[in-house]
């Protein structure tokens, strides 16, 4: 693992500029205390930014803890984050010399929990002086935070640092590489709703006899500028032994920026949704099905080269973008390609290939790499009418950003800390872990990068929105999962405020491998998961999932009416997977929207026909274009119904759109899975009804 446990848990709380909100002054500063309960609770733990470590005193009165800010400073606020053992009576005291003290705040009715105290004064030393304990134990503080002005408006702490306890950085000389991979796979193979999060980052070089089996919430990536900089004479493997050969639940994992020489000549990547295969060079073939060819429900490839043939075999659907392949063997329901050299010709409905020569607009996901010994993030440039990989003729065009420009977010960081980092002008790099936020993460600066490693997961508490992005240019969100909390959130992620009007065509906002989950890991609720208000945004590979299995699942238990709502104009979705919502899975209100590849299942658990009735319409469409829209276009679109709670349910159509010359759909299908519910039409009142139990799609090649 990278770094010792203590340094890995250390959370830097960076400051803002003087014109912004008050600066956090106390983080990492020298601290002393009157006593310490035992060796594991030192005073320094109250200023380390980690909400899982604490200072605790001896069980007597009085006791104190004192922070040295280093110089006299204007102080405006103190935040005390108490453990269960809190102070009933205490004072906040200020001093410029450590000897003479003035009282800035006092109480005899302390309530514990988190106490935010507005104070005023100039101090080098700030002290919490405990007069009377509320419990039989000592005084115990998770964090003692002092805010004010830092005097010069500059940052008090830099970005960068180590990547925490859940990232393995490996080079060819690292001992027992296979053992490290196997140990994590053993933990993660079947941990579909577990708390483990992991990333393996391989330095440039050649690695022999590697078989990296990738389980849930695991990312493997090379640290070169090009995939061929990091070569495995071996495999990166996903199979489905844990599920009896059925790969339809092989979610939440990633492989990026590696070259593979597969041992057998063919690599196996048998994944389902939310599993990306980016910037990969497979010097052989690629098998997308599990051993035994059980069902699989992927999938997504981008900016990759497969020298041999790609065999989807039992894969229900797949989207490949801006890549190069040596061949493609077959299609089940929906195989879609845009900008892919070597892709099969468009032939929908038989074989079910939808092929666009280029991708209208694309910009690849940011990635970590090593520049000599320095860690940096590379942000690829936007392309228009793209075809093939970005790295075919050398280094990918784009910008290189040092890690020092990133706040490295580690488990225990609070939303307030994260927002302070953003206000300071830092980007965010979420290390693998689960992060609870009690206020929205506010991304307000143009061209900010928010990058997650190891499927880092953000959980909104108390019904807040997990993240909000201002109506600004160039923000890049990539590589994380938003998991709804038990209190309903109106939204989980908002791109731009309501009514956003700015033109971002030159530098769009991009979402890449950003996933959403409501239920499954436990109770969760969200009215709408993703709302896109900004114009020109690119949604590049997302899975927006209301859980149909796992914990906290039921028609009203994990209620989530809408998956994605697009209000902005000129928004492009490439690889849009949205499933199981109580009403519309996708609602599109913006003009000139485009979608290339859409995969959907309607909610399994609808209890009866009345529960999904939409006025006089039977069921809510999977993909609804608002009646006000005059221009919209979509390619390679599939919706499936599997109404297992009531197989008699009828769905009028999978797709609904206004009948206007500028609204066009290409290569649509609907499928009844085993006869559990049926569709009357494909789009509006066009297309044959599904029938029987044979799971045969009904298709429409062009609409209108």
Automatic annotation (TrEMBL):
<keyword id="KW-0326">Glycosidase</keyword>
<dbReference type="InterPro" id="IPR008979">
    <property type="entry name" value="Galactose-bd-like_sf"/>
</dbReference>
<dbReference type="GO" id="GO:0004338">
    <property type="term" value="F:glucan exo-1,3-beta-glucosidase activity"/>
</dbReference>
<keyword id="KW-0378">Hydrolase</keyword>
<dbReference type="InterPro" id="IPR011050">
    <property type="entry name" value="Pectin_lyase_fold/virulence"/>
</dbReference>
<protein>
    <submittedName>
        <fullName>Exo-beta-1,3-glucanase</fullName>
        <ecNumber>3.2.1.58</ecNumber>
    </submittedName>
</protein>
<keyword id="KW-0732">Signal</keyword>
<feature type="signal peptide">
    <location>
        <begin position="1"/>
        <end position="20"/>
    </location>
</feature>
<dbReference type="InterPro" id="IPR059186">
    <property type="entry name" value="SACTE_4363"/>
</dbReference>
<dbReference type="InterPro" id="IPR000421">
    <property type="entry name" value="FA58C"/>
</dbReference>
<dbReference type="InterPro" id="IPR012334">
    <property type="entry name" value="Pectin_lyas_fold"/>
</dbReference>
<feature type="domain" description="F5/8 type C">
    <location>
        <begin position="11"/>
        <end position="149"/>
    </location>
</feature>
<dbReference type="Pfam" id="PF00754">
    <property type="entry name" value="F5_F8_type_C"/>
</dbReference>
């Amino acid at each position: 693992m990278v770094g010792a446990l203590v340094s890995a848990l250390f959370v830097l709380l960076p400051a803002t500029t003087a014109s912004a909100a008050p600066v956090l002054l106390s983080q990492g500063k020298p601290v002393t205390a009157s006593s310490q309960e035992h060796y594991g609770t030192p005073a320094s733990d109250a200023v380390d930014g980690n909400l899982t470590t604490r200072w605790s005193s001896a069980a007597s009165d009085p006791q104190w803890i004192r922070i040295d800010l280093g110089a006299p400073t204007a102080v405006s606020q103190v935040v005390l984050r108490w453990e269960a053992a809190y102070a009933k009576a205490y004072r906040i005291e200020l001093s410029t010399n450590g000897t003479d003290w003035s009282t800035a705040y006092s109480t005899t009715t302390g309530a514990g929990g988190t106490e935010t105290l507005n104070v005023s004064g100039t101090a080098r030393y700030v002290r919490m002086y405990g007069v009377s304990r509320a419990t039989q134990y000592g005084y115990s503080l998770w964090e003692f935070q002092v805010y004010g002005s830092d005097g010069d408006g500059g940052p008090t702490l830099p970005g960068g640092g180590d990547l925490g306890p859940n990232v393995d950085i490996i080079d060819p000389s690292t001992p027992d590489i296979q053992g490290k991979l196997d140990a994590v796979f053993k933990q993660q193979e079947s941990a579909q709703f577990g708390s483990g999060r992991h990333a393996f980052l391989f330095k440039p070089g050649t690695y022999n006899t590697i078989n990296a089996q990738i389980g849930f919430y695991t990312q493997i990536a090379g640290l070169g500028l090009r995939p061929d900089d990091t070569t495995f004479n071996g495999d990166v493997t996903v199979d489905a032994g844990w599920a009896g050969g059925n790969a339809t639940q092989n979610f939440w994992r990633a492989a990026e920026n590696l070259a593979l020489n597969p041992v057998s000549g063919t690599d196996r990547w048998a994944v389902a949704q939310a599993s990306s295969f980016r910037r990969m060079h497979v010097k052989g073939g690629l098998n997308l099905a599990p051993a035994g060819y059980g069902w699989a429900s992927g999938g997504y490839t981008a900016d990759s080269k497969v020298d041999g043939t790609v065999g989807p075999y039992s894969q229900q659907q797949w989207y490949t973008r801006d890549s190069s392949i040596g061949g493609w063997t077959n299609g089940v329901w929906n195989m879609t390609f845009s900008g892919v050299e070597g892709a099969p010709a468009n032939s929908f409905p038989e074989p079910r290939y939808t092929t666009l020569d280029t991708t209208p607009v694309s910009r690849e996901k940011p990635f970590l790499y090593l520049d000599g010994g320095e860690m940096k993030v590379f942000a690829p440039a936007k392309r228009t009418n793209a075809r093939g990989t970005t790295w075919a003729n050398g280094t990918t065009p784009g910008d290189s950003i040092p890690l020092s420009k990133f706040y490295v977010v580690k488990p225990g960081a609070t939303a307030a800390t994260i927002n302070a980092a953003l206000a300071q002008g830092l980007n965010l790099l979420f290390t693998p872990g689960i992060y609870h936020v009690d206020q929205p993460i506010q991304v307000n600066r143009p061209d900010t990068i928010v990058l997650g490693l190891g499927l880092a997961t953000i959980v909104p508490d108390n019904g807040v929105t997990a993240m909000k992005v201002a109506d600004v240019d160039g923000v890049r969100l990539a590589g994380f999962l938003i998991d709804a909390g038990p209190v309903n959130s109106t939204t989980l992620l908002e791109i731009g405020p309501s009514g956003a009007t700015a033109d971002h065509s030159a530098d769009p906002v991009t979402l890449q491998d950003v996933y959403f989950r409501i239920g499954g890991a436990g109770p969760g609720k969200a009215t709408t998961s993703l709302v896109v208000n900004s114009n020109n945004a690119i949604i590049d590979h997302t899975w927006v999932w209301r859980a149909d299995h796992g914990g906290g699942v039921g028609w009203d238990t994990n209620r989530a009416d809408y998956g994605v709502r697009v209000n902005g104009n000129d928004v492009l979705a490439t690889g849009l997977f949205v499933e199981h919502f109580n009403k519309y899975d996708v609602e599109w209100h913006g003009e000139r929207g485009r979608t290339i590849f859409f995969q959907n299942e309607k909610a399994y658990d609808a209890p009866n026909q009345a529960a999904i009735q939409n006025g006089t319409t039977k069921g809510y469409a999977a993909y609804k274009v608002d009646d006000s829209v005059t221009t919209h276009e979509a390619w390679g679109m599939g919706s499936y119904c599997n109404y297992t709670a009531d197989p008699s349910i009828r769905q009028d159509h999978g797709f609904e759109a206004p009948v206007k010359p500028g609204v066009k759909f290409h290569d649509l299908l609907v499928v009844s899975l085993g006869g559990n519910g049926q569709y009357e039409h494909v789009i509006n009142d066009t297309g044959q009804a599904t029938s029987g139990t044979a799971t045969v799609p009904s298709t429409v090649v062009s609409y209108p």
